[in-house]
């Protein structure tokens, strides 16, 4: 069940601060407050989806397409095209701590040889 009081829901409603990088009708992109790489940002869809399974099963096609387009626009605008990772933790056992679907985009010089 989706918790409308999770931190990402609050960020989407403007009730909690974030360092916004990009926003459109489908997604919000902002800095991770606890980065694990030189560049570590989060992309969240504008909708109440707990994880990637919920999002891909229940979000309208237009929202899904818009979300992935926002990911691509963000990667391109930051010049990360050939040097980034995406991570979507799903479930507490996999490290998901905020149960609003989100995608981590990370980039660091060490990734060039770490893949």
From TrEMBL:
The active site is at residue 102. InterPro entries: Histidine_triad_CS, Histidine_triad_HIT, HIT-like, HIT-like_sf. Pfam families: HIT. A motif (Histidine triad motif) lies at residues 100-104. Residues 7-115 form the HIT domain. GO terms for molecular function: catalytic activity. PROSITE patterns: HIT_1 (PS00892), HIT_2 (PS51084). This is HIT domain-containing protein.
């Amino acid at each position: 069940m989706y918790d409308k009081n999770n931190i990402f829901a609050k960020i989407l409603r403007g009730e909690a601060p974030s360092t916004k990088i990009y926003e459109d009708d489908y997604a919000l992109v902002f800095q991770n407050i606890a980065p694990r790489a030189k560049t570590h940002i989060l992309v969240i869809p504008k909708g109440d989806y707990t994880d990637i399974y919920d999002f891909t099963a229940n979000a309208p096609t237009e929202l899904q397409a818009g979300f992935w387009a926002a990911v691509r626009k963000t990667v391109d605008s930051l010049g990360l095209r050939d040097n980034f990772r995406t991570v979507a933790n799903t479930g507490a056992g996999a490290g998901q701590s905020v149960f609003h679907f989100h995608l981590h985009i990370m980039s660091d010089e060490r990734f060039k040889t770490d893949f």
